[in-house]
Amino acid sequence: MLHYALVFLVIAIIAAVLGFGGIAGAAAGIAKILFIIFLILAIIAFFRRTG
C-alpha cells in the first residue's frame, strides 16, 4: 500500500513539472488517501500484535 502511495506521489510530481495540473492534483489526492489507509492499517496491525 505504501508502495502505491509513493508511485502516485512520483506521478503527481512529474505531472506538476510537465504542467498537467489536473492530473497532478488527482494523483496527489490518491497518494494522500493511500498513505492514510496505510497508516491506519499499520496502527491496527501494531496494536493487534502487542495486545
Task: Note the main attributes of this structure.
single chain, 51 residues, 2 helices
Query: Mean pLDDT, as a whole number?
Result: 89
Percentage of β-strand residues? under 5%
Roughly how many Å apart are the termini? 24 Å
Strand segment tally:
0
| Portion in helices | over 70%
Number of helices: 2
Unreliable stretches (pLDDT < 50, length at least 5) are: none
The biggest sheet, with number of strands, parallel, antiparallel or mixed sense and barrel status, is: none
Oligomer: single chain
Rg calc: 14 Å
Structural class: mainly alpha
How do the helices and strands follow one another from N- to C-terminus? HH
Shape: rod-shaped
Commentary on this structure:
The longest helix is centred in the C-terminal third of the chain and has 30 residues, at 21-50. Helix 1 (2-18) packs antiparallel against helix 2. The chain is an all-alpha fold and 51 residues long. The chain is built from 2 helices and no strands.
Summarize the structure.
This protein is mainly α and 51 residues long. 92% of the residues lie in helices and 0% in strands.
Topology:
Blueprint: H1 2-18, H2 21-50
Helix pairs in contact: 1-2
